[in-house]
């Protein structure tokens, strides 16, 4: 094993050790480290402890197993001395992932990605798996379950396969001109985070290059797995009769994300991730998050023409001249001029009202958003004891965010 510093510092510690995959969310290493330079090693160790969130000061792990396969462990967190005092510096810490380059006859010869979700998320499947039991030649029982769905989008076929024991979900797809490396492995799960309102990340990722090699990564699983009420399709909406809606939305969202062409999560995806995390906080935090999410999507929806003030330039210039000529309190005059500058551009509320008039959103939800947004953004608290499902105002704001999201995806 090697614990690396910055690129110019090379290896700080080397020595034998082991890596333990202790749970779905934790990967830990143990090593007997020998410092290349004891003074440098001690200084780097202290720096990493003093500022654990600074990547420049954190160690990186590189390891080679007994078969000669090299593994990269990424950044090290919680580096400490272990109780194993056999020899050297007994070090232990957590790593973010494990990555290696795989070769062999079992590696796919097609360019594409394979994502393994453990545990799986509940998706509306269409392909039926039938299991039959026999005694001799006689069939004694038969059972079936929906375990697969195939989706044709972006010039390729994406397959969702639930294993028979329902312990894992595979998402696989070949690359196309639009769905390509290195983005595809991130893009395929982003629509699920929006649709389900819950963190959806693969436990295992295989980036197949099509030449007999694949970059394989093992990552932590998210702690929350159950779909939430902030998802674009509420969990109850995934049942019978809604399968087509779900997969049509998945295709539309994936196409929208791919067109943006970003490796990091799309801004819409990030908003839904924030809403998912806000569910773990107070209802006031959730209300603030919903109000901000709606405003963020509206600002993204508006183009240059949409941002033009509903008041004409002549009227604004006339009012500005009038205020400047007012012979009164100078501070009040400056305050009024500042407020005039704010209405020289169209507000998010005004644009939402237009969307309401066009039928893209519910006008009543816009009124609710305006009232609640103005109160919570200025410090007003909300009642803490009602459930989200039982709060009509919160439900209206959630639906408004959903309607705005649909409008943004449609463009």
Count of discrete domains: 3
Helix run count = 11
Largest sheet: 8 strands, antiparallel
- Share of helical residues: 25-40%
Please give the number of β-strands. 15
Proportion of residues in β-strands: 25-35%
Strand-and-helix sequence, N→C? EEEEHEEEEEEEEEHHEEHHHHHHHH
Can you tell me the overall shape?
A: globular
Order of strands, widest sheet: 8-15-14-9-13-12-11-10
Radius of gyration of CA atoms, rounded to a whole number:
27 Å
Alpha-beta content class:
alpha+beta
- Average pLDDT figure: 88
Low-confidence residue ranges: none
What is the CA–CA distance across the termini?
Answer: 50 Å
Provide a compact summary of the structure.
Helices cover 35% and strands 26% of the residues. It has 411 residues and is an alpha+beta fold.
What would you note in describing this structure?
- Helices cover 35% and strands 26% of the residues.
- The chain has 411 residues and is an alpha+beta fold.
- It folds into three domains: 2-96, no CATH class; 112-265, no CATH class; 283-308 and 345-410, no CATH class.
- The strands form two sheets. The chain has an eight-stranded antiparallel sheet, with helices on one face. A six-stranded antiparallel beta barrel has the order 1-2-4-7-6-5.
- Helix 6 (283-301) packs parallel to helix 11 and helix 7 (313-324) packs antiparallel against helix 8.
- The protein is globular and about 85 Å long.
- It starts with a strand and ends with a helix.
């Amino acid at each position: 094993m090697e614990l690396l510093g910055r690129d110019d510092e090379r290896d700080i510690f080397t020595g034998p050790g082991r890596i333990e995959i202790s749970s779905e969310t934790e990967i830990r290493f143990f090593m007997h480290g020998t410092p290349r330079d004891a003074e440098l090693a001690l200084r780097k160790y202290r720096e990493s402890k003093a500022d654990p969130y600074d990547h420049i000061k954190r160690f990186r792990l590189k390891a080679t197993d007994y078969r000669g396969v090299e593994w990269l462990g990424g950044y090290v967190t919680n580096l400490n001395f272990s109780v194993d005092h056999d020899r050297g510096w007994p070090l232990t810490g957590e790593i973010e992932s494990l990555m290696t380059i795989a070769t062999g006859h079992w590696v796919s010869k097609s360019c594409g990605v394979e994502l393994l979700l453990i545990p799986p998320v509940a998706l509306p499947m269409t392909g039926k798996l039938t299991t039959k039991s026999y005694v001799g030649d006689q069939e004694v029982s038969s059972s079936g379950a929906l375990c697969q769905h195939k989706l044709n989008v972006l010039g390729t076929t994406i397959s969702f396969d639930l294993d028979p024991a329902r312990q894992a979900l595979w998402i696989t797809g070949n690359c196309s001109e639009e769905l390509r490396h290195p983005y595809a492995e991130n893009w395929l799960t982003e629509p699920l985070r929006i649709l389900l309102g819950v963190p959806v990340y693969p436990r295992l990722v295989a980036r197949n290059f099509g030449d007999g090699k694949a970059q394989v990564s093992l990552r932590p699983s998210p702690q929350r797995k159950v779909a939430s009420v902030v998802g674009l399709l509420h969990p109850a909406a995934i049942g019978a009769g809604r399968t087509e809606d779900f997969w049509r939305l998945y295709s539309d969202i994936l196409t929208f994300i791919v067109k943006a062409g970003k490796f990091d999560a799309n801004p819409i995806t990030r908003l839904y991730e924030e809403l998912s995390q806000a569910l773990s906080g107070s209802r006031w935090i959730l209300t603030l998050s919903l109000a901000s999410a709606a405003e963020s999507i509206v600002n993204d929806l508006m183009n240059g023409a949409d941002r033009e003030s509903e008041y004409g330039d002549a009227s604004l210039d006339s009012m500005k001249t009038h205020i400047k000529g007012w012979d009164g309190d100078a501070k009040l005059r400056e305050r009024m001029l500042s407020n005039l500058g704010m209405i020289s551009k169209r507000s998010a509320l005004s644009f939402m009202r237009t969307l309401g008039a066009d039928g893209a959103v519910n006008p009543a939800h816009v009124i609710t958003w305006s009232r609640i947004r103005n109160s919570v953004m200025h410090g007003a608290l909300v009642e803490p004891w009602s459930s989200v499902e039982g709060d009509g105002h919160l439900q209206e704001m959630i639906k408004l965010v959903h309607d705005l999201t649909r409008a943004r995806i449609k463009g």
